[in-house]
Description:
By secondary structure, this protein is of the alpha+beta class. The chain has one domain (6-344, 382-409): tRNA-splicing ligase RtcB (Alpha-Beta Complex). Helices cover 30% and strands 25% of the residues. The protein has helices at residues 27-37, 72-75, 99-109, 134-141, 144-153, 195-215, 233-267, 347-353, 356-362, 385-391; strands at 6-8, 16-18, 46-53, 60-66, 69-70, 82-91, 175-180, 185-192, 228-229, 278-282, 284-291, 294-301, 303-305, 311-314, 321-327, 336-338, 396-409. The chain has a seven-stranded antiparallel β-sheet with strand order 10-6-8-7-17-15-14. A six-stranded mixed β-sheet has the order 1-2-3-4-12-11, sandwiched between helices. A two-stranded antiparallel sheet has the order 5-9. A hairpin with a 7-residue loop joins strand 1 (6-8) and strand 2 (16-18). Helix 3 (99-109) packs across helix 7 and helix 5 runs antiparallel to helix 7 (233-267). It is globular and about 65 Å long. It starts with 5 loop residues before the first strand and ends with a strand. Mean pLDDT is 94; it is low at 115-123.
Amino acid sequence: MEQHYDILDTHGGKPVKMWTRGVPVEQEAKEQLRKTAQMPFIYKHIAVMPDVHLGKGSTIGSVIPTVGAVIPAAVGVDIGCGMMAAKTTLRADDLPDSLGKLRSAIEHAIPHGMSPKTRGHKGRDEGSWMSPPSSVDAGWMQLKDEFDRIVQKAPKLRHTNNYKHLGTLGSGNHFVEVCLDEEGFVWLMLHSGSRGVGNAIGQHFIELAKTDMRTHMVNLPDQDLAYLKEGTQHYDDYVEAVGWAQKFARINREVMMQNLIAAVRRVIPKTFETHVEAVNCHHNYVQKERHFGREVLVTRKGAVSAKQGELGIIPGSMGARSYIVRGKGNEDSFTSCSHGAGRTMSRTEAKRRYKVEDHVKATEGVECRKDVHVIDEIPMAYKDIDAVMHAQEDLVEVVHTLKQIVCVKG
């Protein structure tokens, strides 16, 4: 059978299998992968997706299987970040002449972004609810009791913006989109995670792991590879908290989708059905799975589960195509695929290199923000999504190709 991946020389560490043929990989990301491969509890090998790029602690776009330990910084602070998409029975001809009206309705229905005045933590976070609707209350009831148990062990987490962030988008690369598939059907798609409370949980346990390493004088190739050992209280607490944050993220997307559908119904009078085909998948998370005959912890940092027949979402960038895919169950990748196109440059570099007119041209035909504050999300800051998809043809098959026509970013 033809091998579709390359092997990175890790200088004595565990193997690293890379599905990156035809896509650029920065040297810094390779060095980061080599450091992660040195950790003694890596199981079999690390799998690297074609959207791989430098991250904090571990590369984004990597799948890290472990036995007996977990690396909180590898999971990251945007715990449970992922995608949700739902096909509707609407067609392109059913959309309003003014897509700006549709975008405005979505922006009013889903809190997003963060105003400059609140970045100093003064006043209300503009990206949160002032008075959460009933959909948020219903979602929070599924989360409240377990959250109360978690904050008994970590009281500072109670003061996070948890309840009022449920059903909100956030900022950065998080988005809400209206898309058309190859047959002209309308899809609703969004990208977000566990918001402020997930970030706080991630930061809390990253610091606990670093403290544990100092206490036991463990020598690490990178301090952000600090880990929690199975059988310890911190490990058990982390597994509970990270599982809750992943549940929050899933419900967060479900609540947003409810409000997104309601917003579209207010603009489009025609009766339509939704969730004709629906996908809700994480791409920053950890969970127990069975691979190569053994139960292991699989950390996907910027990667999507692609078990045999499993549906997933691989978004492009603003102005690029996105894909609904079906997994092929490739064990070498620990049944995973990429979570997107992957950045080719930092946000700072994108802002330095490009101007508003570049962004306007690159997002032609998409109803979205065209201002200086979203230049860091310009399509040219990302890898070519077609090359990314080609590099992982043995991991997934394309079910639908989507092109966005409306994009809301924080």
